[in-house]
Design goal:
By secondary structure, the protein is mostly helical. It contains seven helices and two strands, in the order H-H-E-E-H-H-H-H-H. A hairpin with a 5-residue loop joins strand 1 (47-48) and strand 2. Helix 4 (87-95) packs across helix 6 (121-133) and helix 5 packs across helix 6 (121-133). The N and C termini lie far apart (88 Å).
């Protein structure tokens, strides 16, 4: 079918299929302008209009004399490296202790146990809040640090502390 014989609606649809920028029904003043623009785009993009706006098939390229190099995957890419230092896991575990250590004390405990850790009371507070958001019921914290407690409160808090040797035994 010739472009001149096509209805305006089909010409506009053809234009929008082959053009970089689509046009609306009021873009072209006349059918002749749509036809001229389609022919211009078809010539620039090497499109065969007889095949309903499909690009012409490219000619087959000559075969290479040299074969392509085989792709070899690097062995480092397949190995999974451990994430982080384990600060979050340790802080979460201590947060779940029913003793309810203060956030600053938990941060100090994490920093003592994990080499290179820089946990703060705010970061521990973030872990606790994140656990609560995920539905984990975190035990309540102590209101005072043991140094600020009186003798009875300090003795009650120390009863819950368990001593762990460095050898992990």
């Amino acid at each position: 079918m010739k472009l001149e014989d096509m209805p305006t609606k089909e010409l506009l649809a053809l234009h929008n299929r082959i053009a970089d920028k689509p046009a609306g029904p009021k873009t072209f003043a006349t059918r002749a302008k749509i036809v001229a623009r389609i022919e211009q785009i078809a010539a620039a993009k090497d499109i065969d209009l007889a095949a309903s706006g499909q690009p012409k098939k490219p000619k087959a390229a000559a075969k290479r004399a040299e074969p392509k190099a085989e792709v070899v995957e690097a062995p480092e890419a397949t190995e999974k490296k451990p994430r982080g230092l384990g600060v979050g896991a340790l802080a979460r575990a201590i947060l779940m202790d029913p003793a309810g250590y203060p956030h600053a004390l938990i941060a100090a405990m994490v920093n003592a146990q994990v080499e290179g850790a820089a946990a703060t009371d705010k970061s521990v507070r973030w872990y606790a809040n994140d656990m609560r958001k995920k539905g984990v019921e975190v035990p309540p914290r102590q209101k005072h640090h043991p140094a600020e407690m009186d003798e009875e409160q300090s003795a009650a808090a120390l009863r819950t502390v368990t001593v762990v040797s460095e050898g992990g035994e």
